[in-house]
């Protein structure tokens, strides 16, 4: 079988893609590849200066590219609501919403709303943003919500601890990351059930082992070990391929999960991969959805999944 690359991305002219965390790493590579295929890309970023630098780089690489900036701080529900309001005003339809931004292995801290940082940023922030923009996504025929997870979701072997969602009793950098990435998958699967009967699908992806800025918060011993094997990691442009395939391949089905095809899904070209058994716990998915609605005060304009 042929290996899927950016050459396989269909023409994206006339389509709008909103990409969180698009100023660097996977998000940047995703934005540049979509812009090169004609999409209007919106870089939803926390730091506008870095976002402007990224937009300039895309415009140099892709002459005539349609690039916009949107300020978005996923650690703040106020910022998320403001960004969603601006995006709704600017775009009557959004073809691709790519939930890419994230933090990994951070020391114990909280978002501006008091949520544990990794769970609050990686899951709750994207849950709120998606809900607030979903009517605009539904307005675009063939639209997709793509959420970036990680092989690290397998760290959460026992699932999500709903009795200590915010890690107030004890804290593990790796454990919190694993649960947040598990939540990304559970969100995708539950959202896909709720989207049945619409022209929109929810898909997930993961980049394998990729060289990005996410590793900056690794604990000292883990960081030292990671630096030794980092030359084996793939580049950010390769790491972005699963996201790009999930977002653009005409053969993608709702609820699928894309990752690299190499050993341990650490590197390679994108294919459909499997997620952990606990990620498919329907009751836990529904409970996570209900808790997320309660914590963010965001409800979705789609029916409850049957």
Automatic annotation (TrEMBL):
Report if keyword Oxidoreductase is assigned: yes
Alphabetical UniProt keywords: Oxidoreductase
A Pfam short name: adh_short
Source organism, top-level taxon: Bacteria
MF (Gene Ontology): oxidoreductase activity
Q: Which CDD domains match?
A: retinol-DH_like_SDR_c_like (cd05327)
* The family this protein is said to belong to: Belongs to the short-chain dehydrogenases/reductases (SDR) family.
What is the name of the protein in this document?
Answer: Short-chain dehydrogenase
The organism that produces this protein has a lineage beginning with: Bacteria, Bacillati, Actinomycetota, Actinomycetes, Mycobacteriales
